[in-house]
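User: Here's a structure from my thesis project, written as structure tokens. My advisor, Dr. K., wants to see whether a designed sequence matches the one we expressed. Can you design one independently, without my sequence as a hint?
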């Protein structure tokens, strides 16, 4: 999947890093459960905690874009619903 462009024709933030994650996922599965630090097309390192990964990212790249993502063989799906109670009030 090629990187998508926004309305202005430029790459979306972290699009390159997300594409790198998707392309490298077969290799990354060996580290499933860990957090990966990705900068551009580079897999920088693996970490046991999100905090360690994000700290390393800011130390190395400061305000430049980087991605920290937990490695999952299949992405978890989260369902969020609202607790709506139907009303019986007549209009």
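Assistant: Designed independently from the structure alone:
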């Amino acid at each position: 999947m090629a990187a998508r462009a926004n309305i202005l024709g430029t790459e979306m933030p972290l699009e390159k890093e997300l594409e790198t994650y998707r392309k490298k996922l077969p290799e990354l599965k060996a580290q499933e459960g860990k957090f990966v630090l990705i900068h551009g097309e580079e897999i920088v390192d693996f970490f046991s905690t999100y905090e360690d990964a994000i700290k390393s990212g800011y130390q190395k790249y400061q305000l430049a874009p980087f991605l920290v993502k937990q490695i999952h063989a299949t992405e978890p799906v989260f369902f969020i619903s609202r607790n709506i109670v139907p009303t019986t009030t007549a209009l």
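When you compare it with your expressed construct, this may help: Strands lie at 35-39, 42-47, 67-70.
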